[in-house]
Design goal:
The longest helix has 11 residues. The chain is α+β, with helices and mostly antiparallel strands and 313 residues long. β8 and β9 form a beta hairpin. The protein is globular, with a radius of gyration of 20 Å.
């Protein structure tokens, strides 16, 4: 897999993520409702726009990283596959009497694909679409009797698109190189995208996960807002998520040490060349990029930047 990232950014590939959760919100209060349930400012989004946002517990622990696409009559959410059922129940729990909002699960009746590199470029031309000018910008077009939503996000810090379709696209996209789940896992770790059950758990908050692009600090009340505001105001974040360049694979989760003291936790790891690459949380007080940590008796990790993570000021 050493050259997979280079191949993805040039030749390109298709990742069939139809097993990821797709939830739809309808009703006149749909944006207000989502605004109150997640970390980003959803009320400012217009049809054709979108954003990443985070579902949080009342104490600001991370439940999932989701992508929002706003349409004229509804709002679509792309969520992690293992969080779909939970979030469906979670959202339903917060719909109170008088709220004009309905949540439905479209996972079984729709299809979703990530497109990268030259493949994305070719598909955009095939559909006759101009270049998108802003992230998450999206349009809905008809192709071969299918309704396609094409969104300017690949889910990673790589150029590409997300296709959301009402019918399978295997006959059309199956001729291009395909990414399987293990390859997606490899790429998302190297890119630094945190994943549910690994970096996104109730042990961490989005400031620690360096998901600053998903947070609004002035939008008002939402679940977890008080904790986020307090952590931000008083610089109370004790650890941050980083990339880790290792000299070999290790089983995760596993502690990270500096001079014999535990200073973090390796949460994801994938083989890379003769070594490995990982993601992990490191205590802020011991430093960041350039730091060398001990993982085990014969494994070391150098802390490095990764493209997807945003530094929270």
């Amino acid at each position: 897999m050493a050259d997979l990232l280079t191949t993805l950014t040039t030749q390109g590939a298709v990742y069939d993520c139809s097993h990821w959760g797709r939830l739809r919100l309808t009703g006149g209060d749909r944006l207000k409702f989502l605004h109150n349930q997640t970390s980003n400012n959803c009320l400012i989004l217009k049809p054709g726009q979108g954003a990443d946002t985070v579902f949080l517990t009342s104490t600001a622990r991370t439940l999932d990283l989701a992508t929002v696409l706003v349409h004229q009559e509804w709002v679509d959410l792309l969520v992690s596959p293992q969080r779909r059922a939970f979030l469906l129940q979670w959202l339903d729990k917060y719909i109170f009497f008088g709220d004009d909002v309905q949540v439905s699960d479209l996972t079984a009746s729709s299809y979703c694909y990530r497109l990268f590199g030259e493949v994305a470029h070719t598909i955009r031309h095939t559909l006759g679409l101009p270049e998108f000018t802003t992230p998450y910008q999206h349009v809905t077009v008809a192709q071969g009797g299918r309704s396609l939503t094409v969104a300017a996000t690949s889910g990673l810090a790589l150029p590409g698109f997300t296709l959301w379709s009402d019918r399978p696209l295997t006959d059309w996209l199956g001729t291009y190189p395909q990414l399987q789940d293990p390859e997606w896992e490899h790429i998302r770790i190297r890119q630094g995208r945190p994943a549910a059950d690994a970096e996104l758990t109730e042990d961490y908050n989005p400031l620690e996960a360096r998901l600053g692009h998903t947070l609004s600090f002035d939008k008002g009340c939402y679940i977890g807002q008080e904790t986020i505001a307090r952590l931000n105001t008083y610089q109370g974040v004790k650890q941050h998520l980083w990339g880790l360049d290792l000299n070999g694979c290790v089983t995760v989760p596993t502690p990270l040490f500096l001079a014999g003291e535990k200073v973090g936790l390796l949460t994801s790891c994938t083989p890379l060349g003769s070594g490995a690459f990982g993601l992990g949380y490191v205590r802020t007080k011991v430093g960041g990029a350039g730091l060398t940590l001990q993982v085990s008796s014969n494994r070391q990790a150098q802390v490095v930047e990764v493209p997807f993570l945003r530094t929270v000021a």
